[in-house]
């Protein structure tokens, strides 16, 4: 009687768990000095990571500190790598994944806002429709003529994306966006 021996199950044949990429908002507190932004951006470009949104401004003048808010996309593992590598850059004081921080009320996710200036051309019915949509989205008219409008709109990026997509068939001419500004919920500082 012959017995067939089955080979042991190998980890090589176990299907890898596929983790999906998701957008993350990172806040960095850095020294406000020449070259810091270039070093941060260099880390992303050198490793092939994309930046979807980037805002930078001095936040503490006396201490010469700036805040960089970056929206990027990646798996949990990639985001942890990015945070770890950012933490090693000398002028970086703190890196916080705002997407994962809970506020005092237990809600997760940051408060995010973006500003966009949107130029739309049109006359007649298209002009009326542009004004109606601007009212629905609480966009403010900051410039107008008989042939165009320039709207200012603030809110979450998804709101701005929707506004822009609705303005395309009406006569979208140009868009300028600031990028995401974000803070954690609750009383604690990031």
Features:
single chain; 190 residues; alpha+beta; Alpha-Beta Plaits; four-stranded antiparallel β-sheet; 26% helix
Structural class: alpha+beta
Order of helices and strands: EHEEHEEHEEHEE
CATH fold group of the largest domain: Alpha-Beta Plaits
* Poorly predicted spans: none
Number of strands: 9
Helices, by number, come to 4
Q: Please identify which CATH superfamily of the largest domain we are dealing with.
A: ACT domain
Strand percentage: 35-45%
Whole-angstrom Rg: 23 Å
Assign the CATH class of the largest domain: Alpha Beta
How many distinct domains? 2
Overall pLDDT score: 88
Overall 3D geometry?
globular
CATH architecture of the largest domain: 2-Layer Sandwich
Kindly state the percentage of residues in helix. 25-40%
End-to-end Cα distance: 71 Å
The largest sheet, given as strand count, sense and whether it forms a barrel, is: 5 strands, antiparallel
Family: Belongs to the acetolactate synthase small subunit family.
GO molecular function: acetolactate synthase activity; acetolactate synthase regulator activity
Enzyme class: transferase
Catalytic activity: 2 pyruvate + H(+) = (2S)-2-acetolactate + CO2
